Fold these 2 entries.
Entry 1:
Amino acid sequence: MKAIAKAHTNIALIKYWGKRNEALILPTNNSLSLTLDGFYTSTRVVFKEDLQKDTFLLNGTRIEGEQYNRVTQFLDLVRNLAQKNIYAEVESINAVPTAAGFASSASGFAALAAASSKAIGLELSDSELSRLTRQGSGSACRSIFGGFAEWQQGEKADGSDSYAVPIAPQNHWDLRVAAVVLSAKMKKVSSRAGMKRTVETSPFFKGWIESIPSEIDAIKQGILDRDFEKVGEIAEANCLKMHATTLGANPPFTYWLDSTMSVMQSVQALRASGIPAYFTIDAGPNVKVLYLPEHEEEVQQTLRSIPGVDDVKLSCAGQGITYLGDDEFV
Ligand code: PMV
């Protein structure tokens, strides 16, 4: 009863921002992302009859507390589905630069869902696996697939129609992403808390939700046509709209630092100088920049020269879930 799975993190081009059901993690809008090569989590799950409770090792350290609780609550879902009452040893290796503002929860829960469901003997389709993964962390349901994936919000109260579907595979388009790491730190409003406050108090939330369907249709066409300007413009506008909702919340908040704005302005200046590049930002201050391979040098140099930028990490499109042998778990 053992399996090892590897999942990559993803960056949303159309953001998931708002829940209609907190317990089941059901969103108020469709979202769309690119899975990223290079940033991943590998997880080994072994179910054993003689265990009295689950155990969780992350990068070699035994984890307790909130992080452990989220893992074991997720394993409860898997045990329920399989109708088996048996505990597991979970061991994860995380190669996600959390300092770069990538939530390791996306690759973490995707790898945990894939490894645990396989180890316990469930034979899930990709959609079933995505639906299960969603209940660990929403954005993780998109990491089941490589390349571009869309999380369809669904309509049903039980969440059975809320899961991700593939839009275009990893090799469809060589789109690149630079993750810009900023040196200043700030007190973090978690994505969970930020979404909740926005849904409950921001008058801009209604406008956000209404604007999504046409953006999703347009960006999907842009991806299929490999139309970089179209995809970049929609992604950047969608990110700005998401962040605008937080300014309307009560109490208002923002994830941006002044260095966040410097990076945004540099990206717009790059564009004005003829180099196509666009930004997107998740629930934190760091910026992700979309560009094409032929502009990698200029984009990287520009970003590294901005005051307040600590590091720039480059990535291309990544693959979906893969299952590994024991000797590949390093
Ligand atoms: O799934 P969570 O709780 O990590 O929320 C992710 C929210 C954003 O990163 C801001 C947007 C997204 O779609 O990934």
Note: The mean pLDDT is 96.
Entry 2:
Amino acid sequence: MNHPENDPQYAGLTVNEGVASPPVINPYLQARKRRQTLSPADYVEQIRKGNITVLSQAVTLVESQNGEHQTIAQEVIEKCLPYSGQSVRIGITGVPGAGKSTSIDAFGMHLIEQRNKRLAVLAIDPSSERSKGSILGDKTRMEELSRRKEAFIRPSPSAGSLGGVARKTRETIILCEAAGFDTIFVETVGVGQSETAVHSMVDFFLLIQLAGTGDELQGIKRGIMEMADGIVVNKADGENIQRAQLAAAQYRNALHLFPIPPSGWTPKVMTYSGYFKLGIREIWDMVFEYIAFTKTNGYFDERRNAQSKYWMYESINEQLRNRFYQSPAITEILPLKEQQVLRAEISSFAAAKQLLDLYFNQQ
Ligand code: GDP
């Protein structure tokens, strides 16, 4: 039970340095020699057969900014929609260093080996856009999982706004489900707004916490705890077990102060060790208990319907915004209006109105 972090000298949280996307090491994902152009129907056929090379290419189209790629991607998504929706979607969040990669590796192996599942691991990483370095990029840490053909691991799409990245991930979920993955993980870092985006696309939201660091240090805000359907305190091993149990008790107390969530499910708090694979089964018993509970009381479908509605509006907002900012008339005059606002020649609101009028009048 001697993990380096259990050494009293260990400085607590470590933030892993950003890395470039690692090479794909899944041996089942063979590089294609020559890229053939597939029709949308071909994509769908291959995806349905569980061809992960083609699935991977389709996801690349979804992520592409290129208009032609987007057209094909949208057609593929539409054709995959009837085959989607059958999975259990799980959001996983926690600060860097909480043990997300290690845990996902352990969770994934448990689901594959003990529960006969096929798992897709997707990510939404707000850091990759800004710094080009990715907090969640080091996927090679999911060593066991990345060698299994029952697992499909895809790093976060990096280009675009959080809304855009989240939409791509949601569309990727549809493709993965059509390819027969029955469990979808969407991983994110618990430091920004990305949890809200992930929460709005999953059935169960799992928050990975650590013992021994105050909430502030962990950067976990009350809002994130309120979103969680389960809180799991990681690294409950060696010297750390008692501290983890104490932290779990504190989280349990804190949760009592929150109103009962609309699911009717009182979030559970558990301790486990991702590294030593202790307490993993109990976590998944809990997740499946939640799924059965919410399917029985109708909340499962209610939440998915609410999410579909949410994404329709998000998609409208995103596209309106993109078209506005990409419109040549707007890009031409925008810097001038900005200057006028800065020089206090016109008010922000007047400038916005002029620009919007210009945009909508040319439609
Ligand atoms: P992430 O940044 O949230 O993905 O965290 P990682 O999975 O990369 O883990 C960060 C560090 O915590 C690594 O050094 C892991 O070996 C360590 N770690 C992860 N899980 C455990 C655990 O269950 N017990 C202990 N003691 N260390 C762990």
Note: The chain has three domains: 36-83, 85-310, 327-363.
